[in-house]
UniProtKB/TrEMBL annotation, chain B:
Residues 6-97 form the Acyl-CoA dehydrogenase/oxidase N-terminal domain. PANTHER family: ACYL-COA DEHYDROGENASE (PTHR43884), ACYL-COA DEHYDROGENASE FADE28 (PTHR43884:SF20). Belongs to the acyl-CoA dehydrogenase family. Keywords: FAD, Flavoprotein, Oxidoreductase. The keyword Oxidoreductase applies. Transmembrane segments: none annotated. This is Acyl-CoA dehydrogenase. Residues 223-361 form the Acyl-CoA dehydrogenase/oxidase C-terminal domain. The keyword Flavoprotein applies. It comes from Micromonospora chalcea. Its cofactor is FAD. Coiled coil: none annotated. SUPFAM superfamilies: Acyl-CoA dehydrogenase C-terminal domain-like, Acyl-CoA dehydrogenase NM domain-like.
């Protein structure tokens, strides 16, 4: 696996592997666990993470000593494209791989890398992100969860909220305040906290879809080892911002194929139920297609100029584009259905159009809301005064 | 010059330098209200001295033989400054002629030899930009043709020496023909226009002598239409960027309530949305340039889509520019309205939004 391969070889390899895996033991997992479907097939998807890991598909571009495999930025995009094309299951490991992994690679000690990264690339550990709190959302510097140092460990007390997959995760990367007198960006630290311990309580929050993928997490004298602090004590803000940069990174470039599948499904539905004949709906469908083309060409441009990574600015533009686009496609999906979209299963089970319609409201909130992205673009790209 | 990225950057920079000196927005303002509506001296400078007409004409025909992006870079630089006249249409016609193959070589040779500027005439009353309804007739054969018909809203004709015209021969086949503006039977009437930076003409042809530019059996008329759309897209993408820049610059210096108005979040967010739109337009325009350069089969689709996206983006940015400037933005003296009017002409020329959207849908197989 060490030798560099061409993009075509890479595509053929991942495509072939996915085909085989998803017709065999994981056939049932196809299409599960996507956005708004995080509650589905947990056991199978956990097993799927390990299967992906064993085949070497987690940790693309990471050093091989941690179980990674060499891959260019273009190949990472290809992976995400083929993954979506195959309808492979929603990743339980996306925060592990896309948020924590790059953070450890950038800021972790050799011991932390050696301990945690191989368990991510093998699909063993699932991580969740403990940033947001009741009082700290867009303004993350308002974090109040406290961590007090006692010898070789920290004792953590406080509350996180909207913590995706906390009910399934083995570990949580937590931003908390280690300096009790501090305010704002100073005095924060980035701790790696095991979820399976007495001081951690996870309470699922029911979302407007009727299902739960995010949770409240209560820390009541929970414990984290000092050696599991990433970055220096009090430097947690810098580390956390690094993670946010990764959050808006490469996977969004690979989303194109998944979006196209959704759009094609909506158009196919419009053609079969007559909605396509309604000029107003047809215009919106064609505009959605045009919007997707704009994103596709933007992604190509980004890739051409990005080298090995994306700047936060480019990522802000692409986040604003896709989140807004996907949210309108969700509206369009139910409009195309017509009044039939108002009927759900007996337990509020939702079909694809309904799920898309409801869950896509989150797209413009998480990972930096649309308003926050606009602030970033206005101040850092256009240089408008604060 | 071999057409490396460095060469391209150099061409763009040298054209930009000349235009900044001779054809900035202030100059456009003066020129557009003049009788001719364009600046003949600038035309002379850019053609005779900078040799822009020969830029992408193959070497064996007397040109510099550079590739498509050299010409599109110039169209963008002209577009960013809303430069009136027939330079953009000339480069557009030259790019289309290149794409038409050997049959267009005599025209390209003439372009360099005689330093010909060109206009492109497709629309007709009744037909609009629907090629299928073209009623202008071509009679004759081989090299000798006579055209009869009326072309409307023709850009570039006020300053061009040759007009490329779509017409239908006796067999009903559409083709592209070149007519000398000075020939007998050619009557060009140039109108005052809503978009003062782009004069439009009615071209009446009565048995006007013409040569055929495309090869029989091809899709020459479509090639020409696609290139006109490309011109509008490239100009619009560049103009949208320029208009956003001048607006953002203003928001940084204009103060109200004791602070720069650009610090008000309501305005910031609108600028951010415009920046996203401008980036999207740029991406579609760049993709179209690649398509034209590689001769990809998606040309009609990509040109239609880019013209729609870029013209709409310019319109949005320019409308916001007026609003965000306040009273000064409503004055004739300010530049904002030039972009606003340019945006409207880009939207309405070469097919309405509804028609182009329907074309995109059909070409994409939706
Ligand atoms: C489905 C989902 C999953 C999530 N998963 C996680 C997770 O795993 N881990 C985690 O830590 N967090 C997670 N979040 C939380 C998410 O990051 C926050 O919801 C987000 O940062 C917004 O914070 P908030 O909810 O407190 O809203 P607020 O910050 O209170 O925002 C409320 C409104 O005010 C606007 N606003 C706020 N500040 C400004 C400003 N300066 N200028 C203009 N407008 C402003 C916002 O855009 C928004 O419209 C998740 C959220 C969702 C919806």
């Amino acid at each position: 696996m060490g030798a560099p391969v061409s993009d075509e070889q890479f595509r053929a390899e991942i495509r072939g592997w996915l085909r085989e895996a998803l017709t065999g033991p994981f056939a049932e997992a196809v299409g599960t666990g996507g956005e708004g479907r995080e509650h589905e097939a947990h056991e199978l998807r956990r097993e799927w993470e390990r299967h992906l890991g064993r085949a070497g598909w987690i940790g693309l571009s990471w050093p091989t000593e941690y179980g990674g495999r060499p891959a260019t930025l273009a190949q990472q995009v290809i992976f995400h494209e083929e993954y979506a094309r195959a309808g492979a299951p929603g990743r339980l490991g996306h925060m592990s791989e896309q948020l924590l992994g790059p953070t450890l690679l950038a800021f972790g000690t050799p011991e932390q890398k050696a301990r945690f990264l191989p368990r991510i690339t093998s699909g063993e550990d699932i991580w969740c992100q403990g940033y947001s709190e009741p009082g700290a959302g867009s303004d993350l510097a308002g974090v109040r969860t406290r961590a007090e140092r006692r010898g070789d460990h920290y004792v953590i007390t406080g509350q996180k909220v909207w913590t995706s997959l906390a009910h399934l995760a083995d570990w949580c990367f937590v931003l908390c305040r280690t300096d009790p007198g501090s305010t704002r960006h100073a005095g924060l630290s980035y701790l790696l906290v095991p979820m399976n311990q007495p001081g951690v309580t996870v309470r699922p929050i029911t979302q407007l879809t009727g299902t739960s993928e995010f949770n409240e997490v209560f820390f009541d004298e929970a414990v984290a080892a000092v050696e599991h602090r990433v970055g220096a004590e009090g430097e947690g803000w810098k580390v956390a911002m690094g993670t946010l940069g990764f959050e808006r990174g490469v996977s969004t470039l690979g989303q194109q194929i998944g979006f196209r599948r959704r759009l094609d499904a909506v158009i196919a539905r419009a053609r079969s139920n007559g909605a396509w004949q309604e000029p107003a709906l047809r215009d919106r469908l064609v505009d959605a297609y045009i919007g997707l083309e704009v994103m596709r060409h933007s992604a190509v441009r980004l890739l051409a100029s990005a080298g090995e990574g994306l700047s936060g600015l480019e990522a802000s533009i692409s986040k604003l584009q896709w989140a807004t686009w996907n949210r309108s496609l969700g509206e369009l999906a139910v409009d195309v259905e017509g009044a039939g979209a108002l009927l759900t299963g007996p337990g509020y089970e939702l079909d694809d159009a309904q799920t898309h319609f409801l869950f896509s409201r989150a797209n413009t909130i998480y990972g930096g809301s649309n308003e926050i992205q606009r602030n970033i673009i206005a101040e850092r790209l256009l240089g408008l005064p604060r | 010059m071999t057409g490396t990225p460095e060469d391209l950057a150099e061409i763009r920079a040298s054209v930009a330098e000349v235009l900044d000196g001779q054809a900035d927005l202030r100059r456009t303002h003066e020129v557009m209200v003049g009788e001719r509506g364009y600046d003949p001296l600038l035309h002379e400078l850019l053609t005779a001295e900078l040799g822009l007409l020969g830029l992408v004409v193959p070497e064996h025909l007397g040109g510099l033989g550079l590739d498509v992006p050299a010409a599109t870079a110039v169209i963008e630089e002209l577009g960013a400054r809303l430069v009136p006249g027939a330079l953009a249409t000339s480069l557009t016609a030259i790019l289309a002629a290149r794409a038409l193959g050997p049959s267009a070589e005599p025209l390209l040779a003439r372009v360099v030899d005689e330093q010909l500027t060109l206009a492109v005439a497709l629309a007709e009353d009744g037909a609009g930009w629907d090629l299928g309804q073209t009623a202008t007739r071509a009679t004759g054969a081989g090299d000798e043709w006579a055209l009869t018909g009326t072309k409307t809203v023709v850009p570039g004709a006020e300053a061009a020496r040759v007009v490329l015209v779509t017409a239908r021969n006796e067999g009903g086949e559409l083709g592209v023909y070149a007519v000398d503006r000075a020939a007998d039977g050619v009557d060009v009437r140039t109108h005052m226009t809503l978009d003062q930076t782009r004069r439009l003409s009615t071209v009446r042809l009565r048995e006007a002598a013409a040569t055929r530019v495309d090869a029989p059996g091809g899709d020459g008329a479509r090639v020409l239409l696609d290139h006109v759309r490309a011109m509008l897209a490239l100009e619009s993408a560049a103009a949208a960027r320029a208009c956003l820049d001048l607006t953002v610059d203003y928001l940084k210096v204009r103060e109200q309530f004791g602070r720069p108005i650009g610090s008000f979040q309501a305005l910031k967010h609108r600028c951010a949305d415009l920046a996203v739109a401008v980036a999207g337009a740029r991406a579609t325009a760049d993709h179209l340039v690649t398509t034209l350069r590689t001769g990809a089969a998606t040309r009609s689709h990509d040109a239609a889509l880019a013209k729609l996206v870029c013209a709409d983006t310019l319109m949005t940015v320019a409308a916001e520019a007026i609003q965000l400037h306040g009273g000064i933005g409503f004055t004739f003296e300010h530049h904002a309205h030039l972009f606003f009017k340019r945006g409207k002409s880009a939207q309405l020329l070469a097919g309405s939004a509804a028609a182009v959207r329907a074309e995109v849908a059909a070409l994409a197989g939706l």
